DNA sequence: GGCACCGGGCTCTGCCATAGGT
DNA sequence: ACCTATGGCAGAGCCCGGTGCC
């Protein structure tokens, strides 16, 4: 009888309450709350109308330091429109930003321009994450420097911000970021690995230190409960193989590990090998998705005459296949079967499902044209690298020409 | 040289919910 | 009441090449 992992008994610490170091609001915002608090909405409304209609020019004569003076919302809107920001999108995403007094959009623009971001990228960043313009220049600059300790150039950071503005701007807690960097190094991750984490899963660095610690601790507990004696190496390996692991919840990862153990009836050692080996990549799949995709693979292969053991072996030899959604998996299988490739050929060469449908189709067509008999020959070349495949195809075609020439 | 085996490189945001501060 | 900071979720592949055996 196999010993079972008592994951269910392992505690997942609930968030201990995030470290809240709020960005200090500017004085005028506080003053305006005092003067124009909710109980005085009528006064506020009247005052705003008065300010807009009578002393707009006076009110909007702000000095260079945007922190010390408010931006009248009309001016904010004008600024944003001039910058090319999609104001409707921004308002829909974070309406609160537009109600506050004192935003730093001009400073943000100047800052990002100095780092090499284009005007279009800046507009896109603000459109998608308007809270970015509430950050102070000092805070931005320090955060940027901390990121630069990990990546080598400003342009790399710009590329990340363009992809995911939220990762950089969601928090202004730079102390937490510093502690995260320190913590990740202390786990034994190399500089290269941190760089990969930052480019692949930048959210990791905006997580609270506590949240990252929870995941690392959870993985260490899994390792120890499975009887492995090097939890540090284990954690390092999983994070290296799956840089997204730290932006998943422990609940999701725990559920997936339990699923893999029960679905494949693995003992502790087999499970250990799977999750810090080929299975590391699929630990961050949503629980439903993993269950759904695996059930689909099982049902489809079963209907094609595969045995349970064959299916088990097939998936374990290439767990990435669980990434494939129902349609994609079926389309790939159909496309291969249509070309008289047998299901036994497919399950013996699971890596061919790595290739995209278009690659499979074009290669099948080229190979058939070259006289290659897919149902009797090796099909692994369907998943070779382009370079190797081209060389092979060239030889096949040359060989055919020689035969025809004879 | 030809191929099997295998590991690794890229890559993953944008939205919602909610606790807690002002 | 409103805003901010943070946690958590859904969604879902493809490609390259080193190494070693024959």
From TrEMBL:
* InterPro entries tied to this protein: MTERF, MTERF_sf
Q: What do the Gene Ontology cellular component annotations say? A: mitochondrial nucleoid
Question: Where does this one sit in the cell?
Answer: Mitochondrion
Top-level taxon of origin: Eukaryota
Query: What GO molecular function annotations does the UniProt record carry, in alphabetical order?
Result: double-stranded DNA binding
Keyword terms, alphabetized = DNA-binding, Mitochondrion, Phosphoprotein, Repeat, Transcription, Transcription regulation, Transcription termination, Transit peptide
A GO BP term here is: termination of mitochondrial transcription
Quaternary structure, from the entry: Monomer.
Describe its function: Transcription termination factor. Binds to a 28 bp region within the tRNA(Leu(uur)) gene at a position immediately adjacent to and downstream of the 16S rRNA gene; this region comprises a tridecamer sequence critical for directing accurate termination. Binds DNA along the major grove and promotes DNA bending and partial unwinding. Promotes base flipping. Transcription termination activity appears to be polarized with highest specificity for transcripts initiated on the light strand.
Instruction: Give the protein family.
Output: Belongs to the mTERF family.
Which protein are we looking at?
Mitochondrial transcription termination factor 1
């Amino acid at each position: 009888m196999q010993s079972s992992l008592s994951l269910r008994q392992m505690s997942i610490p609930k968030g201990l309450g995030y470290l809240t170091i709020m960005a200090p609001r500017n004085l005028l915002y506080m003053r305006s709350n005092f003067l124009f608090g909710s109980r005085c909405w009528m006064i506020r409304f009247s005052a705003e109308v008065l300010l807009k209609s009578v002393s707009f020019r006076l009110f909007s004569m702000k000095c260079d330091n945007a922190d010390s003076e408010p931006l009248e919302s009309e001016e904010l809107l004008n600024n944003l429109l001039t910058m090319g920001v999609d104001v409707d999108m921004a308002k829909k995403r974070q309406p609160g930003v537009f109600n506050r007094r004192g935003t730093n959009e001009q400073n943000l623009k100047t800052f990002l321009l100095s780092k090499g971001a284009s005007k279009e990228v800046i507009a896109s960043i603000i459109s998608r994450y308007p809270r970015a313009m509430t950050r102070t220049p000092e805070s931005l600059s320090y955060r940027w420097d901390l990121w630069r300790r990990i990546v080598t150039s400003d342009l790399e950071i710009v590329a990340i911000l363009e992809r995911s503005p939220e990762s950089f701007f969601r928090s202004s807690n730079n102390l937490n970021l510093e502690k995260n960097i320190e913590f990740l190094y202390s786990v034994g991750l190399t500089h290269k690995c941190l760089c990969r984490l930052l480019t692949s899963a930048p959210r990791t660095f905006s997580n609270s230190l506590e949240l990252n610690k929870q995941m690392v601790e959870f993985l260490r507990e899994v390792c120890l409960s499975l009887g492995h004696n090097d939890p540090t190496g284990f954690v390092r390996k999983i994070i290296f193989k799956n840089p997204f692991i730290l932006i998943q919840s422990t609940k999701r990862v725990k559920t997936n590990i339990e699923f893999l153990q029960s679905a494949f009836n693995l003992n502790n050692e087999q499970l250990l090998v799977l999750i810090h080996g080929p299975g590391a990549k699929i630990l961050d799949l949503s629980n439903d998705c993993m269950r759904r995709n695996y059930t689909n693979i099982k049902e489809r292969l079963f209907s094609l005459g595969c045995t349970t053991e064959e299916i088990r072996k097939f998936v374990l030899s290439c767990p990435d296949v669980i990434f494939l959604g129902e349609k994609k998996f079926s389309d790939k299988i159909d496309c291969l079967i249509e070309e008289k490739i047998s299901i036994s050929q497919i399950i013996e060469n699971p890596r061919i499902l790595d290739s995209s449908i278009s690659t499979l189709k074009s290669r099948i067509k080229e190979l058939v044209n070259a006289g290659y008999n897919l149902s009797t020959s090796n099909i692994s070349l369907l998943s070779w690298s382009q370079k190797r495949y081209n060389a092979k195809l060239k030889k096949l075609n040359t060989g055919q020409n020689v035969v025809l020439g004879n």
